[in-house]
What does this fold into?
Amino acid sequence: MSRGSGCCRASRRSLGAGCSVPDAVRAPLPRGRFITLEGGEGAGKTTQVRRLAAALTEAGLPVLRTREPGGAPGAERIRSLLLSGGNWDPVAEAMLHFAARREHLARTIQPALAAGITVISDRFADSTLAYQGAGQGLPRPVWEQLSAVALEGFAPDLTLILDLPPETGMARAAGRGEPDRYERLGLGFHQRVREAFLAIAAAEPARCHVVNAARGADAVFADLRAIVFARPAP
Ligand SMILES: Nc1ncnc2c1ncn2[C@@H]1O[C@H](COP(=O)(O)OP(=O)(O)OP(=O)(O)O)[C@@H](O)[C@H]1O
Ligand SMILES: [Mg+2]
It folds into this structure.
Protein backbone atom coordinates (compact mmCIF):
# COMPACT_ATOMS: atom_id res chain seq x y z
CA MET A 1 0.00 0.00 0.00
CA SER A 2 1.43 3.36 -0.94
CA ARG A 3 2.08 5.88 1.81
CA GLY A 4 -0.96 7.98 2.49
CA SER A 5 -3.49 5.80 0.77
CA GLY A 6 -6.43 4.15 2.46
CA CYS A 7 -7.19 4.25 6.18
CA CYS A 8 -4.11 2.40 7.42
CA ARG A 9 -1.27 4.61 6.35
CA ALA A 10 1.69 5.02 8.66
CA SER A 11 0.49 8.34 10.04
CA ARG A 12 -2.67 6.74 11.41
CA ARG A 13 -3.04 4.39 14.35
CA SER A 14 -5.23 1.36 14.08
CA LEU A 15 -8.39 1.22 16.20
CA GLY A 16 -8.77 -2.49 15.72
CA ALA A 17 -11.17 -3.79 13.10
CA GLY A 18 -9.92 -1.75 10.18
CA CYS A 19 -10.82 1.66 11.69
CA SER A 20 -8.34 4.37 12.48
CA VAL A 21 -8.18 7.99 13.59
CA PRO A 22 -5.64 10.59 12.51
CA ASP A 23 -2.67 11.02 14.85
CA ALA A 24 -3.72 14.63 15.30
CA VAL A 25 -6.91 13.39 16.99
CA ARG A 26 -5.21 10.75 19.11
CA ALA A 27 -2.17 12.85 20.03
CA PRO A 28 -1.96 13.93 23.66
CA LEU A 29 -3.45 17.34 24.41
CA PRO A 30 -0.93 20.17 24.50
CA ARG A 31 0.33 20.50 28.05
CA GLY A 32 -1.60 23.03 30.09
CA ARG A 33 0.10 26.02 31.67
CA PHE A 34 1.23 26.08 35.28
CA ILE A 35 0.69 29.50 36.82
CA THR A 36 1.57 30.35 40.42
CA LEU A 37 0.59 33.31 42.57
CA GLU A 38 3.03 34.29 45.27
CA GLY A 39 3.35 37.00 47.89
CA GLY A 40 3.11 37.69 51.59
CA GLU A 41 0.20 37.41 53.99
CA GLY A 42 -2.97 39.15 52.86
CA ALA A 43 -1.49 40.16 49.50
CA GLY A 44 -4.67 38.99 47.77
CA LYS A 45 -3.44 35.69 46.31
CA THR A 46 -6.56 33.67 47.07
CA THR A 47 -8.82 36.49 45.88
CA GLN A 48 -6.93 36.82 42.60
CA VAL A 49 -6.49 33.08 41.96
CA ARG A 50 -10.29 32.81 42.04
CA ARG A 51 -10.73 35.73 39.67
CA LEU A 52 -8.07 34.52 37.23
CA ALA A 53 -9.50 31.01 37.18
CA ALA A 54 -12.94 32.46 36.42
CA ALA A 55 -11.54 34.63 33.60
CA LEU A 56 -9.68 31.72 32.00
CA THR A 57 -12.74 29.48 32.30
CA GLU A 58 -14.83 32.20 30.67
CA ALA A 59 -12.28 32.30 27.85
CA GLY A 60 -12.96 28.60 27.26
CA LEU A 61 -9.88 27.09 28.89
CA PRO A 62 -10.11 24.14 31.27
CA VAL A 63 -8.72 25.37 34.60
CA LEU A 64 -7.80 23.79 37.91
CA ARG A 65 -7.45 26.01 40.97
CA THR A 66 -5.23 24.65 43.72
CA ARG A 67 -3.17 25.77 46.71
CA GLU A 68 -0.11 25.15 48.87
CA PRO A 69 0.62 23.79 51.30
CA GLY A 70 -1.96 21.26 50.17
CA GLY A 71 -3.66 20.53 46.88
CA ALA A 72 -3.75 16.73 47.33
CA PRO A 73 -5.17 14.62 50.19
CA GLY A 74 -1.82 13.82 51.85
CA ALA A 75 -0.56 17.35 51.26
CA GLU A 76 -3.64 18.80 52.98
CA ARG A 77 -2.86 16.67 56.04
CA ILE A 78 0.68 18.08 56.08
CA ARG A 79 -0.83 21.59 55.72
CA SER A 80 -2.72 21.11 58.98
CA LEU A 81 0.52 20.16 60.74
CA LEU A 82 2.37 23.18 59.36
CA LEU A 83 -0.23 25.86 59.94
CA SER A 84 -1.59 24.75 63.31
CA GLY A 85 1.58 25.06 65.34
CA GLY A 86 4.71 23.21 66.37
CA ASN A 87 8.25 24.37 66.87
CA TRP A 88 9.80 22.86 63.77
CA ASP A 89 13.48 22.75 63.01
CA PRO A 90 13.78 24.91 59.83
CA VAL A 91 15.11 22.02 57.71
CA ALA A 92 12.38 19.69 58.98
CA GLU A 93 9.79 22.35 58.21
CA ALA A 94 11.12 22.82 54.68
CA MET A 95 11.10 19.03 54.20
CA LEU A 96 7.44 18.93 55.21
CA HIS A 97 6.67 21.66 52.67
CA PHE A 98 8.50 19.76 49.95
CA ALA A 99 6.89 16.45 50.91
CA ALA A 100 3.49 18.12 50.55
CA ARG A 101 4.60 19.72 47.28
CA ARG A 102 5.72 16.38 45.86
CA GLU A 103 2.28 14.90 46.59
CA HIS A 104 0.65 17.98 45.06
CA LEU A 105 2.81 17.73 41.95
CA ALA A 106 2.47 13.98 41.41
CA ARG A 107 -1.23 13.59 42.21
CA THR A 108 -2.75 16.88 41.11
CA ILE A 109 -0.57 19.23 39.05
CA GLN A 110 1.14 16.88 36.59
CA PRO A 111 -1.96 14.82 35.71
CA ALA A 112 -3.92 18.03 35.09
CA LEU A 113 -1.19 19.59 32.92
CA ALA A 114 -0.88 16.37 30.94
CA ALA A 115 -4.65 16.51 30.29
CA GLY A 116 -4.26 20.01 28.83
CA ILE A 117 -5.65 21.79 31.90
CA THR A 118 -4.26 25.15 33.01
CA VAL A 119 -3.34 24.89 36.69
CA ILE A 120 -3.31 27.96 38.94
CA SER A 121 -1.70 27.46 42.34
CA ASP A 122 -2.05 29.74 45.34
CA ARG A 123 1.65 29.57 46.40
CA PHE A 124 4.37 27.12 45.27
CA ALA A 125 8.12 26.57 45.80
CA ASP A 126 9.00 30.30 45.87
CA SER A 127 7.05 30.57 49.12
CA THR A 128 9.36 28.02 50.76
CA LEU A 129 12.41 29.97 49.62
CA ALA A 130 10.93 33.23 50.93
CA TYR A 131 9.39 31.97 54.21
CA GLN A 132 11.80 29.22 55.26
CA GLY A 133 14.85 30.71 53.51
CA ALA A 134 14.78 34.46 54.03
CA GLY A 135 12.23 34.36 56.85
CA GLN A 136 13.57 31.49 58.98
CA GLY A 137 17.20 31.16 57.88
CA LEU A 138 17.06 27.93 55.85
CA PRO A 139 20.27 27.92 53.75
CA ARG A 140 19.58 28.28 50.04
CA PRO A 141 21.59 25.13 49.10
CA VAL A 142 19.22 23.10 51.31
CA TRP A 143 16.20 24.59 49.50
CA GLU A 144 17.92 23.74 46.20
CA GLN A 145 18.60 20.15 47.22
CA LEU A 146 15.05 19.59 48.47
CA SER A 147 13.70 21.23 45.35
CA ALA A 148 15.84 19.02 43.11
CA VAL A 149 14.58 15.86 44.84
CA ALA A 150 10.90 16.86 45.04
CA LEU A 151 10.44 18.69 41.75
CA GLU A 152 13.12 17.14 39.50
CA GLY A 153 13.50 20.40 37.59
CA PHE A 154 9.78 21.13 37.30
CA ALA A 155 8.96 24.86 37.57
CA PRO A 156 6.00 27.15 36.90
CA ASP A 157 5.55 28.59 33.42
CA LEU A 158 4.48 31.90 34.92
CA THR A 159 4.68 33.33 38.44
CA LEU A 160 2.75 36.41 39.53
CA ILE A 161 4.18 38.01 42.64
CA LEU A 162 1.74 40.20 44.54
CA ASP A 163 3.83 42.85 46.27
CA LEU A 164 2.73 45.15 49.07
CA PRO A 165 4.04 46.48 52.39
CA PRO A 166 3.68 43.72 55.00
CA GLU A 167 1.81 46.09 57.33
CA THR A 168 -0.94 46.45 54.71
CA GLY A 169 -1.14 42.71 54.07
CA MET A 170 -1.15 41.83 57.77
CA ALA A 171 -3.96 44.31 58.41
CA ARG A 172 -6.01 42.72 55.61
CA ALA A 173 -5.29 39.20 56.88
CA ALA A 174 -6.18 40.21 60.45
CA GLY A 175 -9.66 41.10 59.25
CA ARG A 176 -10.20 37.44 58.36
CA GLY A 177 -10.09 36.10 61.93
CA GLU A 178 -7.71 33.88 63.92
CA PRO A 179 -4.13 34.22 62.54
CA ASP A 180 -2.27 31.06 61.47
CA ARG A 181 1.26 30.23 62.60
CA TYR A 182 3.01 32.26 59.87
CA GLU A 183 0.73 35.26 60.31
CA ARG A 184 1.76 35.37 63.98
CA LEU A 185 5.45 35.92 63.13
CA GLY A 186 6.73 39.51 63.50
CA LEU A 187 6.97 42.36 61.02
CA GLY A 188 10.74 41.81 60.50
CA PHE A 189 9.99 38.27 59.31
CA HIS A 190 7.39 39.50 56.85
CA GLN A 191 9.69 42.25 55.59
CA ARG A 192 12.36 39.63 54.81
CA VAL A 193 9.73 37.54 53.02
CA ARG A 194 8.74 40.52 50.87
CA GLU A 195 12.35 41.25 49.94
CA ALA A 196 12.93 37.58 49.10
CA PHE A 197 10.01 37.52 46.66
CA LEU A 198 11.35 40.67 44.97
CA ALA A 199 14.83 39.08 44.72
CA ILE A 200 13.33 35.94 43.15
CA ALA A 201 11.53 38.11 40.58
CA ALA A 202 14.72 40.04 39.80
CA ALA A 203 16.67 36.80 39.33
CA GLU A 204 14.05 35.19 37.06
CA PRO A 205 12.43 37.92 34.97
CA ALA A 206 11.29 35.51 32.25
CA ARG A 207 9.14 33.56 34.73
CA CYS A 208 8.15 36.19 37.28
CA HIS A 209 6.07 39.36 37.14
CA VAL A 210 5.75 41.66 40.14
CA VAL A 211 2.37 43.35 40.49
CA ASN A 212 1.63 46.21 42.90
CA ALA A 213 -0.94 44.59 45.21
CA ALA A 214 -1.44 47.64 47.46
CA ARG A 215 -4.28 48.80 45.18
CA GLY A 216 -7.90 47.81 44.96
CA ALA A 217 -8.67 44.24 43.89
CA ASP A 218 -10.04 45.34 40.48
CA ALA A 219 -6.87 47.23 39.54
CA VAL A 220 -4.67 44.32 40.64
CA PHE A 221 -6.81 41.87 38.67
CA ALA A 222 -6.64 44.00 35.50
CA ASP A 223 -2.82 43.79 35.58
CA LEU A 224 -2.78 40.06 36.31
CA ARG A 225 -5.29 39.34 33.58
CA ALA A 226 -3.27 41.31 31.02
CA ILE A 227 -0.09 39.41 31.89
CA VAL A 228 -1.76 35.98 31.79
CA PHE A 229 -3.58 36.62 28.51
CA ALA A 230 -0.47 38.09 26.87
CA ARG A 231 1.56 34.92 27.49
CA PRO A 232 1.30 32.08 24.99
CA ALA A 233 0.84 28.50 26.18
CA PRO A 234 4.11 26.53 26.51
N1 LIG B 1 -6.71 44.52 46.66
C1 LIG B 1 -7.31 44.39 47.85
N2 LIG B 1 -7.59 45.46 48.60
C2 LIG B 1 -8.17 45.33 49.82
N3 LIG B 1 -8.50 44.15 50.39
C3 LIG B 1 -8.23 43.03 49.67
C4 LIG B 1 -7.62 43.09 48.38
N4 LIG B 1 -7.47 41.82 47.94
C5 LIG B 1 -7.95 41.02 48.90
N5 LIG B 1 -8.42 41.74 49.93
C6 LIG B 1 -9.00 41.23 51.19
O1 LIG B 1 -7.90 41.04 52.07
C7 LIG B 1 -8.02 39.80 52.76
C8 LIG B 1 -6.85 38.91 52.35
O2 LIG B 1 -6.99 38.56 50.96
P1 LIG B 1 -6.61 37.11 50.45
O3 LIG B 1 -7.15 36.08 51.39
O4 LIG B 1 -6.98 37.02 49.02
O5 LIG B 1 -5.03 37.20 50.60
P2 LIG B 1 -3.96 36.04 50.57
O6 LIG B 1 -2.78 36.61 49.86
O7 LIG B 1 -4.56 34.82 50.02
O8 LIG B 1 -3.63 35.87 52.11
P3 LIG B 1 -2.88 34.62 52.84
O9 LIG B 1 -1.45 34.69 52.50
O10 LIG B 1 -3.08 34.90 54.29
O11 LIG B 1 -3.57 33.38 52.37
C9 LIG B 1 -9.36 39.22 52.39
O12 LIG B 1 -10.29 39.59 53.36
C10 LIG B 1 -9.68 39.88 51.04
O13 LIG B 1 -11.05 40.02 50.84
MG1 LIG C 1 -4.79 32.91 50.85
